[in-house]
Amino acid sequence: MDPKRFTRRLIALGAAMFLCALVFVVTLFDAQIVNGDDYLAQSIRTNAKSETVKASRGVITDRNGKVLVSNRAVYTLNFDSSLVSSDELNDALLRVIELMNAQGVEIKDTLPLARTSPYAYDTANGSAKTLVKYLVSLKWINEKNVGDDGLPTTLTGSALYLKLRSEYGIDETLPTGTVRTLIGLRYSLASAKMNGSTTFEFASDVDVSLISLIKDGNYAGVQVDTSSVRVYETDYAAHVLGYTGSIQDWDDYKDKDGYTLASIVGISGVENAFEDYLHGSDGKRLVTLNESGKITGELYSVEPKPGSTVALTIDIDFQAQVEEALKNTVSSMTKSDGIDRGAAVAVVQVGTGDVLALASYPTYSLSTFRQDLAELSTDLLQPMWNRATQGKYAPGSTLKPLTAIAALESGATTVRERIYDSGKWTYPGTSMGPYCWKRSGHGSLNVRGAIMNSCNYFFAEMGYRMGMDTLREYYAKFGLGSPTGIEIGDTTGRLPSQNEGENLAPWAAFGQANQEYSPLQLANYIATLCGRGDRYATHLLKNVRSSGSGALEYVYDAEPVETVEMSSENLSAVLAGMHDLATDGAVSQYFKDCIVDAAAKTGTVQTGDTKNNNGAFVCFAPYDDPQIAVTIVIEKGGSGAALASTAVQVLNAYFSNTSASSAITGENTL
C-alpha cells in the first residue's frame, strides 16, 4: 500500500475520532457543568419524593415538673394513591382491608358516616365542613344546602352512602362492612387530594408482625411510617388535659407551618389550648424510589423539631386528692339516697389566678376513653362534660358576701347599720316577698352577722335598696357574667336580669332570680374578694420550655385584669362574717378539723325540686393571709353545709401537702 495514502487515511481516522471525542466532552461539559443543576433537579423530580418527618408532640407537666402526658413511638400505615393507577385502586384497597380484618386491626377514615346501616351522619368520625366542601366539588349539593349543624340538608347519610358507592365503582356484592370501609378509604383519599395530598394514614400503632406482612406481601400503595402516640402518666385531670386526634377541618390548619393532613392535633383541654406550643415542626426528607415505589435512598433531610414542654399551674398530687374527695362525697350521697349526681370543684390561687385544681365528677380515663366512647356518649351524667368550667349553676347564698360589698361600697348600708329580721321580707306596698330560711327571723343584724347567719331578709333589703343595675355592676366587676380567661374555655355565665316593670333585685341579691355561674367563676370571685380586689384571669399555663435545651420560651406573668376599689373597713366586715361562719356558725363543727384558719359561705341552690336542691360552698384560707379560694358545687347535694366536710378535706390536702410550698413559688421555676 502506498505509504502516503495510508498516512492520509490514518490522519482522517484520527481527526474523526478527535471530533467524536470533542463532541462527547462538549456534551458532557454542557450536561454536568453548564446545565448540571437543571438536569439534576429534573432527575430528582422524576425519581424522588418529598416526605414529611413527623415531630413528636410536646410533653405536659404539672407546676412541679411531674410529667402528665408524654409520647411513645409507634409505626403507622399510610396509603399513597399516587403509587396506584385509578383502575387498580379499589383492588389495592381491598387487599389492605382483607389483611387488616384478618389481623384485627382497626382501619381509620374521615368519612362522617356511621359504620353500620342506616349510615347516619356522625361528625365524631370526620369533619362536616370537609364533607360539604367535597360534595360541593362534585356538584351534589350547593353551599346553601347546609343546616345549622354544618351537615347537608338535601342528602341523607344513607343516600350519600349509595352515591359514594356508585361514584367509586364499588362492587355491590361485597359484604356491607367491607363496602363501608372501602367507601371510607376512598373518601379519605379523595378529600386528602382535594387538599393537596395523595397520602392518608389509615392505621396507627401497628405491631412489627403486621409490618413484616406488609413488606413481604408487596401491598401496592401502602407505606410504613413512624409517629408517636400520647401516653397518659396520670389517671387524673382528664377534663383539664384533654385529648388529641386527627385534623377535623383542614382549613383551620392549612395556612400554619408544620401541618399536613396526617397531623395529630389537640381536640380538647390543654392539648387544644396550647396546640401552638405542643405541636412542634415536622421535618422533611427527599427519598429516591424504584419502579415499585420502594425507597432506595435518602438525598437530604430537615430534622423535625419536637414540640415544647408545657408546664401547667395544677399540682397533680393535689388534683388527685381533690378528685378523690369529691368522688367519695358524691358516692356517699348516692349510696344514701340512690340519686345519681354530678359535681365540681375549682381551686384558684389568690393573687395570681393560677388554677391549682379543677375537678369534674363523674370523670373518665384518657387512656381508654376511645374504647369507652359509646358508653360515655350515652351516659346521662355526661362524664366528658367539664362541670367546673362549663356548668352553670345559680349561686344561692354563696353570692351574699359580694352583695354585701356592693351594698357597703354603694352606700346602701354601713358596717354599723342593724336591720331587724322578722322572718319575712315584704316588698314595699305589697304583702309579697321572700321568707328567711329561719322563719322566726334572726332579729337585729349588721352586715357581718347577716353573712354569718345567711339572712335572706337582710340581703333582700339590700337588693331593694340598690336595684338591679347596681347589683349587676358589682357582680360584673368581680368577673361574674363573663369568661374567667382560662385557656380551655368556660361559660360566660349569666348575670341577673329582669323585664321592664319588674324588680327582681331583692331576690337576685341573695343568689336567686335568673343568674347562673360556673364553679370556676365563683372561685375567682372569692379569690378577688379576699385578694383585696385584685381580679386576675384564671389560667392553666405556667411556662413553656424548649424540648431540647429546656430554655424558657414563655412565662405567664399577667397583671390583674381589674382592681375593685373597696374600703378596708367594708372588706374586713365582709370577710369577718365569712370567718364567723367557719368558726362559730353552722359549719364550725366541720372546720374544727381544718388545719388552717379559714372563712366560708354556704349556698343552697334552688332547682324547682325542694327535696333535691343543689349544694354550693365557697371558702378561702388562711383567713389572715389568703392563699387559695375554693368552690364546690354538688348537684342535688342539699344544703351547702353538707359540702363543708369536703371543703375541709380540700384545704387540709393543700396545706398539708409536702409540695404546697413549691406550689406557690415564683413563675420562673418548674
Descriptive keywords:
670 residues; alpha+beta; seven-stranded mixed sheet; five-stranded antiparallel sheet; 21 strands
Structural commentary:
By secondary structure, the chain is an alpha+beta fold. 37% of the residues lie in helices and 18% in strands. The protein is built from 23 helices and 21 strands. The strands form 6 sheets. Strands 2, 3, 4, 5, 10, 16 and 17 form a 7-stranded mixed sheet that branches. It has a 5-stranded antiparallel sheet with strand order 12-11-21-20-19, with helices on both faces. α14 (400-410) packs antiparallel against α20 (568-583). The termini are far apart. Residues 658-670 have low confidence and may be disordered.
Low-confidence stretches: 658-670
Output mean pLDDT: 89
Radius of gyration: 34 Å
Largest sheet: 7 strands, mixed
Secondary structure layout plus pairing:
Layout: H1 3-34, H2 36-47, E1 48-53, E2 60-61, E3 67-80, H3 89-103, H4 128-137, H5 157-167, H6 176-194, E4 199-206, H7 208-217, E5 222-232, H8 238-241, E6 244-246, E7 264-266, H9 269-273, H10 275-278, E8 283-289, E9 295-302, E10 309-312, H11 316-337, E11 343-349, E12 355-361, H12 373-378, H13 387-390, H14 400-410, E13 419-421, E14 443-445, H15 447-453, H16 456-466, H17 468-477, H18 505-508, H19 519-530, E15 534-535, E16 541-545, E17 552-555, E18 562-563, H20 568-583, H21 588-591, E19 599-605, E20 614-621, E21 628-634, H22 644-656, H23 660-663
Helix pairs in contact: 3-6, 11-22, 14-16, 14-17, 14-20, 15-20
